[in-house]
UniProtKB/TrEMBL annotation:
Taxon lineage: Bacteria, Pseudomonadati, Pseudomonadota, Gammaproteobacteria, Oceanospirillales
Entry protein name: Common-antigen outer membrane protein
Domain of life: Bacteria
Length: 121
């Protein structure tokens, strides 16, 4: 009897319908996304169409003035959005990585999460 009751409880959890919120309708799981939208239409167009390895020179960008941006291969992130890793190269700054993802209003600049291999446990 106990086994049957446990089975009913577990199966009822699978049949539960959850409310459809803004995150569901947006097609990804981040409903409080604080990513910064990219306002440059040329950069948005480049990110939309450029093949991997393409480079664009930007006098002004979200990563500072006078940088070259190399686009990585587009991929589908766990959030359900198309994203691209970027290499940012500037004469005044060291080379660094950036991450952009496509949202309803264009591309957004995401915070890059990196691993540290210098720390020992």
């Amino acid at each position: 009897m106990w086994l049957v009751a446990t089975g009913v409880v577990l199966l009822s959890g699978c049949a539960t319908q959850y409310p459809q919120g803004a995150a569901s309708s947006a097609g990804y799981v981040l409903n409080q996304d604080s990513a910064t939208p990219i306002q440059d239409t040329n950069l948005n167009g480049f990110l939309e169409q450029a093949p991997a390895g393409s480079v664009i020179n930007l006098a002004d960008s979200p990563w500072g003035p006078g940088v070259d941006v190399a686009a990585g291969q587009p991929y589908m992130a766990a959030s359900g959005r198309e994203c691209r890793r970027l290499e940012i190269m500037g004469s005044q700054q060291p080379q660094r990585e950036a991450l952009v993802c496509q949202a309803a209003n264009g591309w957004v600049n995401q915070r890059v999460i990196t691993e540290s291999t210098s720390r020992t446990l």
